[in-house]
Design a protein that fits this description.
By secondary structure, the protein is mainly beta. Helix content is 0%, strand content 42%. Among the domains are: 31 residues, no CATH class; 106 residues. A 4-stranded antiparallel beta sheet has the order 5-6-7-8, with no helix packed on it. It has a 4-stranded antiparallel beta sheet with strand order 9-10-11-12, with no helix packed on it. The chain has a 4-stranded antiparallel beta sheet with strand order 13-14-15-16, with no helix packed on it. The radius of gyration is 21 Å and the shape is globular.
């Protein structure tokens, strides 16, 4: 079967009230579990009920697609304890000593098959594919916290940092590029032998 290139395939979206032969070539007559955004067609999120078996009150939930086996859901409570829901079973993956009275936003991302979770008043935690539990992120700058952690290309980004007690709300700090299944080797912007740095 021949594949025909069609420009702007998702630019029209779904049109159900016109006969199919009257539609433009880049329109759809029916769609399921997809979304149209910026002239592209992508898979839509699938909403699921997690479980009634939660023994904690979630403050943040993050879905993780597994390379094999079941997808999992990471559940973070108000004390930054991290649990994992897999195949209907909830198990604890990180035990924090933070207080529930100082609740701050939680962010998460995945880069090079490594999962990262951050709360803005503590060091980010990570889990490599071969690990069972989350641990503090190694090579993280001492005395630094970040509002959000994100991935971009091969870099891990820290957005809005507090460094040694000084707030940099507009700072974007980036790590040295990472390799598959590894965490960043450094965040040191003063070391000119690597690509780590920051922009305000």
């Amino acid at each position: 079967m021949t594949n025909l290139p069609i420009r702007g395939l998702g630019s029209v979206g779904v049109v159900t009230d016109i006969d199919p032969y009257s539609l433009p070539i880049n329109a759809y007559t029916r769609a399921k579990n997809v979304r149209f955004n910026e002239a592209k067609v992508t898979r839509a999120p699938i909403y699921r009920s997690i479980s009634g078996n939660l023994t904690t009150t979630p403050k943040f939930i993050y879905g993780v697609s597994a390379l094999s086996g079941f997808d999992t859901v990471l559940v973070v409570d108000d004390t930054f304890d991290i649990f994992e829901m897999s195949n209907g079973v909830l198990s604890q993956k990180y035990n924090s000593s933070l207080s529930a009275s100082a609740i701050t936003p939680v962010t998460a991302t995945i880069l090079a098959d490594v999962q990262y979770i951050n709360r803005s008043n503590t060091v980010p935690v990570h889990r490599v594919p071969t690990a069972t539990n989350f641990t503090a992120l190694p090579n993280w700058p001492s005395g630094t916290t970040t509002t959000a952690i994100r991935s971009y290309g091969d870099f891990l980004l820290a957005l809005g940092t507090v460094e040694s007690g000084t707030a940099f709300p507009n700072r974007v700090r980036f790590s040295d590029p990472v390799l598959a299944n590894q965490v960043p080797s450094t965040w040191d912007a003063s070391d000119l032998t690597n690509s780590a740095g920051f922009n305000d």
